[in-house]
Write a structure and sequence with these properties.
With 393 residues, the chain is mostly helical. The chain has one domain. The chain is built from 17 helices and no strands. Helix 5 packs across helix 17 and helix 10 packs antiparallel against helix 12. The relative contact order is 0.18. InterPro entries: Bact_Transport_Assoc, DUF418, HGSNAT_cat.
Length: 393
Amino acid sequence: MARDRRRSMTSAPTTPLRRRIERNWRRLNGPARVAGVDLARGLAVLGMLAAHLLWLGSLSWTEPSTWGAIVNGRSSILFATLAGVSLGLSTGGPRPPSGAGLGRARLRVVIRALLIWLIGVLLISLDVPAAIILPTYAVIFVLALPLLAQRASRLFLAAAIVVLVASPVVVWANASPWWESYEGWLTGLYIGWNYPFPLWVAFTLAGLGLARAGMWSRRAQWAALGLGMLLAVAGYSLSPGAEPSEESADRPFLEAWWTADPHSSGVLEAIGSGGFAIAVIGVCLLLCSAGRLPWLTFPLRAVGSMPLTAYVLQIVGWALASTILLGSAHEHAFRDLDPFLPMTLATIVLSVVWSLLVGQGPLEALIGRLSSFGGPPGSSGGNAQRRQHILEP
């Protein structure tokens, strides 16, 4: 009896902790969560970190030694596509809201967009030499609102039209010397013009279309993989030559438009990298829907479950570490310190620990709570259990 009493005394303090971990594990691995989206978002978070902090040359698809450069440009486009996916999942999935529910959903998205923009402005004030994507996210969330209730086919059609129309407009606008002025530079910062929203809203619409198509269906997942691969092959195979290691601002308009170079806003980049993002999402959905060994993907999924928090911590960590070690946030000098691996490990470990011990990411929880002032999210098909936050960076 004394032994049993000692055993119960030693095990009692750990019981609440074990229960909390089990509850959070079920939250991230249960049927109410689209685990493949978390996995894709985790890849996007770390891919953008790699693009910022690794020395990467130009990508040549025929040279495997250059494949690390695949994160350039494509990670951020994957982010934008996943923004649309999460926007769709948080507003009913394959059954979008209607009537009063649609109005409430739109109001909540507007509140979230404003909060994300404010967080982006705060990150810009840290003066880290990285293009902060959050202002672009805020704008494209709002631009996508008029099509929030449309079915998948119309959303894919809208995305294609936006690519064809907006790409030449953005390439033409990028050539304007006004962006080199102080006013242009400042405006570009606060509207996120490094990821120009007139074009990038197409990726969000495509992601919204994926969510409306029903991402729990194996058929939809295979279709996403096939369509994405087809678009990627078409876009990249039509692009002339290997990607240049440096951007050229003096290229003729047609050459600047007909290219798949990263961050070029060229039509082939939109097609190829947009397709690449759709294919990655398809692969992640298929991997996670198999349900085998979920703990293998859990570290990345933990990062993807709190993408806004992970993204903000990376930027803040960059600012602090570079200031302490170098006295400034100079990009090249910080890269020379090889910070990618320690920052990646720290991001994964912190995300895993927080997701198991606490649950939802702190910034995700804060924005979710504040946006609830817009009223309860509306849905038209009883899909409330399948909602997922739209807080990725």
